[in-house]
Protein: RNA polymerase sigma factor
Amino acid sequence: MNVSFTEQALVEQRPLLFRYALLQCRDSQLADDVVQETLLAALQSAAAYVSKAELRTWLIGILKHKIADHWRRSAREAPPLPEFIQDSESGEDDYFQENGHWNGGPKSWGDPEAALKQQEFWAIYELCQTNLPPKMANVFMLRELVGLDADEVCREAGLSVANYWVTMHRARLRLRECLEIRWFNNTKQENHHA
Structure:
């Protein structure tokens, strides 16, 4: 096993990998699963690791493949029916009383409006980030969402330091403009009408 490649080094990269996976998957359980698969694959192929590449970069490459594998599998599989549809005969009594009234329901609904707003914001953010030029979006994501430092982003993206700073500045300006148009202006209008 390579000297710089240890189980401890893998464990230290886990938070970074999870942030990246969560950004791509938007589901913490799924993100956790693909990170686990990534770390297992890395351990199994430790001999293939070449220390010329940053461990983090190598792991993100594996993670990208695990995420892509997941989406390919899920595209081939039909989603299962919800449990109450699959077994509507036997489960019906659990949801309704004999007189037909609802049998309780969820104990806490939380704040569904706030949750919806948060989901809407992230959908718009995702749209804004998707509309960035691909190289710019990748640089921004590696720096701000994955947490790589500037030198690592430059190596990963093949940029000079000066080009990196210009790219980051332009990405922030474009994201800010898009979010102002698509989210913040709409939010102000909704609050104004309320």
Q: What stands out?
A: Confidence is low (pLDDT under 50) at residues 84-92. The chain has nine helices and no strands. Residues 161-193 form the longest helix (33 residues). The two ends are 63 Å apart (CA to CA).
